[in-house]
Design a protein that fits this description.
This protein is mainly alpha-helical. The chain contains ten helices and no strands. The longest helix has 29 residues.
Length: about 260
C-alpha cells in the first residue's frame, strides 16, 4: 500500500514520501552491494563493500522507522522494507542497476556517494530536526564511502588501458541515470519550500564540481548529458528492481511473520 492510499493529509503524505525516497535509495543500494559478499576480487574489497552495505542498511533502518511514524499506519521498518510492492518503492533508478564488474560497481558507488554527501550535508540544516539528526550521523559514513569509491575510480581510470576502458564504458552507461537525482518534481519543491529538503539545483552544482575533480584525476571523460527515460523516485522503475525485490523479500513473503 502506498502513502497515496493511506488517507493522509497532503503535507504529512508528502513528508512521508520524501523520507521514503531517502530510505529506499539506501536500502536498494545496500542490497546490491550485498551481492558482492564472497565474490569481490579480493578479501579486503569483499569486506569493504560489505561494510558500506551495512552502513547504508543502518541509515535505511533509521529512515524507514521515521517514515513509518510519519505514515501513522502501524507499519514498521520491516513492513516497509519487505511488504511493499515494486511500484511503491521510491529509490532513484541508478541504485537498482546491476553490479556488473567491479569497475562498474565502483562507478555507480562513486556517483551515488558524491550525490549523497552533498545532499546529507545540506539536510543537516533541515527544518525537520529528526531528519537533520539522521543526516548528521549518515554524513560521517558517507565521507568514508566517497573516499573509498573515489580512490578506486582513480586507480582504475588511471591504471591499465583495460581498466580505463572498462570504467569509462561503465561511466557512459550509468551517467544518464544521474539526471534523476537532480530533477525536482512537485514533492521536491514542496519539501524545499518547507525547509525540509535542500534545493536540488544547489546540490547538483556542488555534485558536478566534485565529480569533475575526481574524473580529471582518474583521466576519465565526463559523458554528455542525454534524455532520461526512467523515474524511480516516482515509482517508475527499470526491470531490474523487480528481480532484486524478489530475492530481498523472499523469506518474509514465503514465511510471513517468521522470527529467528
Amino acid at each position: 500500500m502506498s502513502t497515496a492510499r493511506l488517507g493522509l493529509d497532503a503535507p504529512a503524505q508528502a513528508h512521508c514520501k520524501y523520507v521514503l525516497r531517502l530510505a529506499d535509495a539506501n536500502l536498494i543500494l545496500a542490497q546490491r552491494l550485498g551481492e558482492w559478499v564472497g565474490r569481490a576480487p579480493a578479501l579486503e574489497e569483499d569486506l569493504g563493500l560489505a561494510n558500506i552495505a551495512l552502513d547504508l542498511l543502518g541509515q535505511a533502518r533509521l529512515l524507514l522507522a521515521y517514515a513509518g511514524e510519519l505514515e501513522g499506519a502501524g507499519r514498521d521498518e520491516d513492513a516497509l522494507a519487505f511488504l511493499r510492492e515494486h511500484r511503491d518503492f521510491l529509490n532513484p533508478t541508478l541504485v537498482e542497476q546491476p553490479n556488473g564488474d567491479f569497475g562498474r560497481t565502483i562507478v555507480r558507488q562513486f556517483l551515488v556517494d558524491a550525490w549523497r554527501l552533498e545532499l546529507y550535508e545540506r539536510l543537516m540544516k533541515s527544518s525537520d530536526e529528526r531528519l537533520a539528526a539522521i543526516a548528521a550521523k549518515a554524513v560521517k559514513e558517507t565521507r568514508y564511502h566517497l573516499r573509498y569509491s573515489s580512490n578506486w575510480l582513480i586507480r582504475l581510470g588511471d591504471g591499465t588501458q583495460e581498466s580505463h576502458e572498462r570504467v569509462q564504458t561503465s561511466l557512459n552507461i550509468l551517467w544518464p541515470y544521474t539526471a534523476e537525482l537532480f530533477a525536482a518534481d512537485e514533492l521536491d519543491s514542496q519539501m524545499t519550500s518547507l525547509g525540509v529538503a535542500p534545493d536540488l539545483e544547489d546540490v547538483r552544482q556542488a555534485w558536478s564540481a566534485a565529480v569533475d575533480d575526481v574524473l580529471r584525476e582518474a583521466t576519465l571523460m565526463r559523458p554528455a548529458d542525454r534524455p532520461y527515460k526512467w523515474f524511480g523516485k516516482r515509482g517508475e522503475h527499470s526491470e531490474h528492481l523487480g528481480r532484486l525485490l524478489a530475492e530481498m523479500q523472499y523469506m518474509q513473503r514465503t514465511y510471513p511473520g517468521a522470527q529467528w
